Amino acid sequence: MLPLQSPSKRRFKNLIALTPKRVFKFPIEGKNISPDIFAEKSAKEIAALEMWEGNRKRFLGELFDIKNDSSASEEFTIKIEGDVSKVRNIGFRMSMGQIIVDGDVGMHLGEEMSGGAITVSGNAGSWAGSQMKGGTIEIKGNAGNYIGAAYRGSTKGMNGGKVVIHGNAGHEVGCFMRKGLIKILGNVGIFAGIHMNNGTIFVQGNSEGRAGAQMTNGKIVLAGHSEDVMPTFTVDDIKAKVKVDGEKIEGPFYRFIGDLADKGKGKLFVSKPKNPYLSHYEKYLE
Amino acid sequence: MTELIVKNGFVYDPLNRINGEKMDISIRDGKIVESVKENAKLVDASGMVVMPGGVDIHSHIAGGEVDTARLLRPEDHVKDVEVKTALTRSGVGYSIPSTFTTGYRYSRMGYTTVMNPSMAPLHARHTHEELSDTPMIDKGSYPLLGDWWFSLEHIRDGLIEENAAHIAWMLKATRGYAIKIVNPGGLEAWGFGRNVHSIDDPVPNFGITPREIIRGLCKVNTMLNLPHTIHLHTNNLGQPGNYVTALESMKCVEDLAREDRPVLHITHIQFCAFKGADWRNLKSGAEEISNYVNNHSHVTLDMGQVVFSDTTTMTADGPFQYGLYHLTGNKWVNHDVETETSGGIVPFRYKRSSAVHATQWSIALEIALLIEDPWKILMTTDHPNGGPFTSYPKVMVWLISKGAREKVLSKINKRARKKSLLPSIDRELSLYELAVVTRAGQAKALGLKDKGHLGVGADADIAIYDINPERADPAKKFVAARKAFTSAAYTIKSGEIVVKDGEIVKPVFGKTYWVDVKTSMSHDVNDDIKRKFREYWTVEYENYPIREGFLYAPAPIAVKAEV
What we know:
The structure holds two protein chains of two kinds. Chain A has three helices and 17 strands. Chain A is mostly beta strands. Chain A has a domain at 123-285. By secondary structure, chain B is of the alpha/beta class. In chain B, the strands form six sheets. In chain B, strands 1, 2, 3, 4, 5, 21, 22, 23 and 24 form a nine-stranded mixed sheet that branches. In chain B, a hairpin with a 7-residue loop joins β14 and β15 (283-284). In chain B, α6 (160-174) packs across α8, α10 (286-295) runs parallel beside α12 and α13 packs antiparallel against α17 (478-486). The chains are: A mainly beta, B alpha/beta. At the A-B interface, loops of A face α2 of B.
């Protein structure tokens, strides 16, 4: 396991730029691309970090051109220019600094991160922000499934921090989420907030349905059209506005409580104007 | 001819009454011998403790449940990965390690023989395939026969000798080592969504009681001269107030004892020593259990120690596991193995802060320390139910050091600490007694004549730990002792050095023991049995037994039965 380093003790002003030397065909294990690991190293030492390309062991310097610009940034920054959609686990367990990806990025971006910031101009693969505890991830394009989710089999999902996706996200966003915020400005797949224990998920666009299945607590806000509301949710109120991350979202919204199949007390807000088919619920509110 | 001499160690060999004497052990061709030539390879054990290789009477390391648990718990594996080396294969842990990792980890702790205590007869093939893939250790497996239909029918009809002949056939068919009984009658009832709640509750559709099953199989065990006794997981396991059931189960075979030999082994006694009406006023039944065992010699027990960790519970006791699921709300598997048995798996975290878990931790140690004769109580964690076997070193130091116990006591739940008997127990097991509860006693209870001792003719399975009892009392220096037990200085398996300084230096494969019982009465293969197999099993009678040559390294133990 990689050592965690305390961000408060040191302040690095540095920028490392990585450019892929070629188009990657095989999956690459990128656990070593993290500000915590780069911080104390020279460009030469960074080039000597181990990576796996498929089943071959490589050095970072074999896969990327490395440029060190020591005066260019306020914070320790890793800038990746080019397509790294085959590279997974970038920013694994990072606790400080920032990673800027100018292009697409692979699976498990920022997994278990506890601080710092990651910005992606393109799309991200599945599992971005999985089990993260702090920090922020911003994805300008689309993202895959299991954003902020728990590891397979585990019940410990995202436990803090913030993920913002400007495009669409896939299925099971925020699976087993415990804390933090996931904001999706595009559409979302099925089972957003499945098994959620706490935290907030906001979806600006449409949802493919089954949101909040087995949630026990927390808040899901669906501001667009939703294919359905699970039958194990009960309508509770109609709210004119909902607060998400300090910001007031105009509604009105139906507020549902669930998932009752798991004795849940989670709150599911579904836009009233975008979902006229839910109007029959109103008779239960009188 | 390979010769080896272990020189100058402090030897603890309870079966030969050797208590820490400085002596040499000579080894030739995998056996311990009187002497070897001068050019024999030298293992310098000066200032170290030399014990027979560890023996584990009860550890779920293979079979249907173990494998299903592996599938159920990817999050258990991801946190504990073993990387491939030049000698060893890669694998994963933690509470349900993969087969190779299981073998390596046992060997690193100086263990050389491990028994897999729960094998649904229908899963025997699978279990043996996994055992054949488990390196470094000798092993065996106990088929679950407490709810086996034919046996229940024989018991109902009073056909005790026919039952014995049938069980002998079953042991051969499954390549089994002992008769395992889990919640007798309860698993059959579980097939219909019910359970039995005392040893006198009737079993649905058979009209017999758990008492009759235990007694019936106990008689069969004696008739067949099996090396081990019946291996019983009691009714009402894990229920408050169940120490009564455990005591009744021991009492019900009192009259079947022959000379002073045990006729019953109750496994993971901690899980059936609960006193109190419900979980809130759960107390320890350790005093009652240990009192009884101190005054009777027909029972042996193993601890089933709880270790505070994130583990996976798995037993053939379906109804118990169903209850555990309701208690935890965790993910779970429940399984009905056709007509034979059931099974259940629930991941479980034992927490120091929980009054119940902390009381459980205390109970097993209380029993182990209150029972005066260490040959009657053996050390296990019921891997992985109480905790993974890799925590044995912790349990060992709790047994030998009051200081180590107090360190944990100070950190556990207050209510549990108040109720615990441990502060009033000053006993600390000596290294000699520790060798009894971790190897000699286990081998004796199992009837393994070549294991658990270092006498001439024994298998050369030896563990050497870097503990110098002359220089420091391990009860005081328990942290160092725990480290020494965690990584053996040397493990010698069948006369070869397989571990040095806690690292595997030579991968080897052990044998699989099974009991080949010769009965004069032949097993009655009638049309009725064949018809039942056809109607109720997915496997035909003809395909049911494991064939010759299926096991990688079989080691049949020939036994002559009385019937």
